[in-house]
Amino acid sequence: MDQQAEEAEFKFLSRKSGIDGEICWDWPTIEDRDIVDTANCFWDPALANLKSARRGRSYFVFEEQDKVQEKFAFLQKYGLHNG
To answer: For the whole prediction, is pTM greater than 0.70?
Structure first.
């Protein structure tokens, strides 16, 4: 019998501002991990694209960023049960 996980452990990226105001992401200097209830997760593939390397740091962007922001705003307004 297949069982679905109720929790997942995530390692989070840090949000950065890109040169052109675009939202970029980077690995934090202090590891940011948390165990999250899977009901609060977006399950969809997302590929990180290298945007730039400044001061020896790599910054990544996600093509799906706008879609995720729209979904998040919807969920904040109408609640998770409508997602």
So the answer is: no
In a domain, 2, yes or no: no
Q: 3-state class of 32 per DSSP?
A: coil
Q: Which of 41, 44, 48 is nearest to 62 (CA)?
A: 48
Write down the pLDDT at residue 26.
Answer: 85
In a domain, 1, yes or no: no
Q: Which residues of the chain have pLDDT under 50?
A: 1
Beta strands in 1-83 (DSSP E): 7-11, 14-17, 23-26, 33-37, 48-54, 57-62
Q: Is position 44 within any domain?
A: yes
Look up residue 56 and give its two tokens.
């020896």
Q: Is the dihedral of CA 21, 24, 10, 67 positive or negative?
A: positive
